[in-house]
Fold these 2 entries.
Entry 1:
Amino acid sequence: MKNSEKFSRSLEEIMTQEEIERVFIPKLKEVAYNFFEIVKHFIKHKTSCGKEFFVTFTKESDKIESFLDDHGAANNKSFYYFRELTAAIRWFTQAIFQNLHIITRYNLYHLNLSQAKGKRFIEGLKKNLAFLEDTLEIFCKEILCEGKSFGIVVGDKEHLAESVDFSVPYRKTLPSDLEQQDTGDRDRLINFLIKFLNLGQDFEMFLNDRKVEENITEETLENFRSAYHRLQSTYDTYIGNTNTAKELPALASLRGHISVNLHLLEMARSLIHFYERHTERLTRISEDKPRLRDIRFDDIKKSVESFILPSVFSFAKSGKNLAEQIFKFLGTDPDEYVLETISFVISPYRIEDFHLRPVMPVTQIAAKYSVNIDLYFNRKRYDLKSPLEMAMAIPDIRERLATESARIIVRGPRKATREIFEFFNQRCGAILEQELIRK
C-alpha cells in the first residue's frame, strides 16, 4: 500500500486585490461596526462620556487593532494609516479611563489633602482630561473619514450587529468578613512600609536625575507602575483586613496614595507608549493628512512631565509622612526606617584623607541598621554595608578627587544618613550640597 503523498503549503498567503475587496473589507466592516458606533457616540457626546464608556471603547479598539495586525495592515500602504489611528485611539482611551477613574474615586481614597492642594490636583486632572479628549476627538474624526473612504462605516439605517452597550456589568461581592491572623502582622507591615519608602526614594532619584527627560520611557514608567501595583496587591492581600488596619485610618489613606500613583503611572505609560511608538509615524503622515496637524504631539509628553509625574512624586512624599505616623503607632522610631536621600561634596584637597583605612569603618555604621543603605557615585550604586563594594567605590572616588570635587549621594534611614554624613564630615571634610550652594 502506497503512502499517500503529503503536500505542504505556507501558513500565510498574500491576498489578491480581489480578495481584499471581496473578503477582507466586508469582514473588517462587520468587525468594526460597534467600534464606529462608539466613535460616533464619542464625537457627539465627548464630555459626557463616563469611564465605563471608555472601557468598552478600549476593548473595541483593541479588537480592531488585533484584526488589522493579524492581516498585516501595519505593513500595507492602504491600511497602514487606519491601523495607526486605531492604535492611537486605544492608548488614548486607556489614558482617559485612568484620568476619569481618579476623579470619580477621589473621595474614596481618603487622601486627607488640604482643601487647596486637593483642589489643585482635581483641576489639574480636569485640564489634562480636556486635552486628552480633544486629542482623541481629532483621531476619531480622522478614522471616521478613513472608514468612509473604505466603505466600512455603516449608515444609520443599516445594522450588522446588536446595539452597543456602553455600560459595564454591575458587580456585587461577598462581604470581607474572614478574620485574619495578626500573628507577625507588625513585621509584615514594617516590611510593606519599607518597600513603599524605597519605591518613593527610587522615584525621587529618577525625577532628580539630570537626564530625567531622556529617561521618561515606557520601560521606566512600567517598572514604577508594576512596583506600585505589587504594593497595592500586598496591602489588599495581607494588610487591609487586619485589626491593625481597622484601628489605624492612616493605613487606608496610604493605600489611597498607592492607588492614585498606580493610576497616574498607568496613564503616563499609555501616553508615553503612544508618544514613543506612533508620534514620528503620524507626524510624517500629517504631510498628507492636514487634520493631524491639530494634534499637539509635544504636549502629550509635556503633560506627563509637568503634571502626571510631579503628582506621583507629591503623593509619594505625603505617603512618606503617613508612613512616619504608622511607625510611631507601632512604637517604632521612624528615623530608623523613614528614608531620605542626601548629597554631599568632598573637596580634592582632602584626597589624602579619603582612602581605605579611614573610610572603611563607614560599613560598620551602616551594618547597625536593618534597612538597606546605598551610596551612589558617578551613576553607580554601592551597598554601604558591604566592605567589598566599598573597597571598589573608594578608588573610583579617589580618582575623581585627583582632579576635582566628588559629589556623593547616600540613601537610607534618616538616622543612618545623618550618622554617615557626620562620619564623612569628620574624616574628610564632607559638606552637604545644599549648604555648599547657599555659600
Entry 2:
Amino acid sequence: MKEDIQNSISTDRLYKEYDWYQSTFPEIVQNSCNEFFDPNFRMELIGISKNINCLLENESCFVTKIKIDKDYDMFFRLTSKTIDIILSKILGQSKTKFNINKISELEAKVITSFNDYLFEHLKGKLQPPPQNELKRNNFDVIHLTFIIKEAEEYNNKTGKIFITMPEALLKPEAIVSNNDKFSEEDFPNTETVAKVFIGKTKFSLFDIKNLEKEDVVVFENSNIENVQLSIKEKTFSANINPNMDLLIPEEEHGGEDMSSNTPNIWDSLEVEMSAEFDAVKITLGELKNIENGLVVDLTSLYDNNVTLKVEGNPIASGNLVIVNDRYGVKINQILTNDAKQEKAPAAAETENAEESYSNEGEYEENSEENEEEYNESSEEGSEDEEFDYSDFELEDENI
C-alpha cells in the first residue's frame, strides 16, 4: 500500500516537473550524440518515469553502470534495436541479423564509449551528493526515456535509450499555479453531446416481430419527470419539465393484444427493449444544474427522433409520447422489416436480369408472362417471410 501511495504522489509531482526535464536534458543528449557520432541520429525525450518495467516491454538491453560516488550510480540502457541502428550506421550493415547476446568486443566498446561520453556531459546537471546517509529503495531514481532514429526521414527504424539518475542528485523545478486560470462563468454556454435514455421494458419476441407502424410502446419503468443522460460514459439522472402536449389517452394506444396466441415457446421468450434519443447537445451550465438536482429544460428532446433497441440492435424508430405518467414511443418506421424489403427487390432484379440475358431471343414474347409470375412470387414471398431471430443475441438468463 505504501508503495502505491508513493507511486501516486511521485506521478503527480512528475507531471509538474516534466517541463524542467524537457528543457534540461534533451539538448545535452542530442549535442553529445552529434559530437560522438556526427549528426547521424535524432534523439527525442518521450517520457520520465519512476517505474522502468512499464517502459522496457521485455526488450533486451545493453546496460552500462557508471559510479558517481560510493552511494550513487547512473545507468544507461540501450535496447537491442537501438544498438542495431547505431552499429549499422557507424560500422556498416551486417550480413547477419544483429543478436545482442553475440555482440563483439569492438561493438561493445563503441556503445560503452558513447555511454561514458553521455555521462560526462550529463553529470554537470547533478547536484553534489548529500552528506547524510539515505536508505536506498526502488523509487529513488528517475528514468528518462529517449527515442533514437537515423536523421534521414526515409528511415523509420527507432530504438529506445533509458538514462537512470539518482533522484537525490536532481533538483527539478515544478510548475506552480498561482491562481485559477478559469472560472465557472467562462463555460456555462459551452456545449457537449449527450445520449438520452427514457427507459427500458421487457418484450416477447412474438410482440417484437408483430410491431407495426403507429403502434405505441410504453416503457413501464419510465418517469415523465426524469431521464438518464450518458456523457462520455458517465451517467446522470436528469429532472426535466415534461411536455404535456405529448400526452395521449391510454385507450388510444392499445391496439390488438399481441401477447395472445404465441405459436411456440421461442416466441414467448422475453428480451429487454430500450429507447434512446438521437444525440442532443447540452451546455455545461445545464450539466451543473443536473448535479445540483435542479430541473433542466431539454426542450430539444421533444422534437427529436427516438430509436427502439433490443440487445443493442435498432429495430424501430418513432416519436416520443406520454401515456398517463409514463413515456412511450409511437412507431413511424420498422427498421428490421424495411431492411429486408430493400434487399428483396434488389435480389429479384438481379435474378430477372440473368434470366433475360440468357433468354434474350424469347424476352419479348414472354415479358408479360414473366412480369405476372414475378408479381405472384413476390406476393407469396412477402406472406411467407418469417421473423429472423438471428437479429438478436439472447443471454442465457432470457431462455
